[in-house]
Amino acid sequence: MILPIMLVLASGMAHAVWSMFTKRSLNKSVFLWSIMMIPTIILLPVLIVELAREPLSLAAYALLILSMGLQALYSWLLSQTYELGDLSQIYPIMRGTSTLLIPLIGVTFLGETLSLYGWIGIACMLGGFTVLSGVGSRDITTGSRVKGLKPVLMALSVGLCTTSYVFVDKLNLEHISPLSLLEVTNIGFVAGLTPALLASRQLRQEWKVNRSTIMLGALLNPGSYLLFLFALQQAPMARLGPLREVGTIFAAFLGILLLKEQQGKKRILCSVVIFAGILLIGMWG
Known about the structure:
Layout: H1 2-24, H2 28-53, H3 58-84, H4 87-109, H5 116-133, H6 150-172, H7 178-200, H8 203-232, H9 237-244, H10 247-257, H11 264-284
């Protein structure tokens, strides 16, 4: 179990770092399209060769198409969310939403039960989300009301989309290798951002300013999910999923220390509380 845990922790760290690069970019859609197009081109032969050697059933192809569609929606939601909110605010919400929603849906609609630790975890996450949303608070620098709920709602939408594609990709791993599945998700991700890229006409400018972070992000972005897919092959998702969200703490520190975002102590504390809630639900809930 040690190797899967190490893979998942590395996945969470890598995810937080490329997310910080995205937040620092000029145009979020163009930057995300750029870092995903590179591995998409590199891995395309891998997917073609595997599908040529081992053709899939129609049901399996349908699952792959569903995964691509969810990735396309995810990429668009992600770019819009990074345009609207601070990394230290939106990242913990995006990453924690799935862990919050799954047990609530199970209890409400499927007749499942939660332990005391599970309910404490949900309370921790709801409290952290509420504080991060900034409802009822004032900006410490201007005295005006903090931004509306739109960044928070968008972050919740990203989390819901993430929940959906992880479940679908867990099923896809029964029919296709992690590397080829990664390419399928890459294609969907790029397709979702292509209209915004064409409309912006800022591809050359983004590469001129952020060439180095684009190249590094092109390694970290798919690499973070590939590490998670390899871990999923060795251990149950219920155990590994919560651990991956340690990235919420990394992202909060990156946003405060490197991006100089406001409300540092409060947001770092909230990210720790949310991660604690995730662990309580995932491990003992």
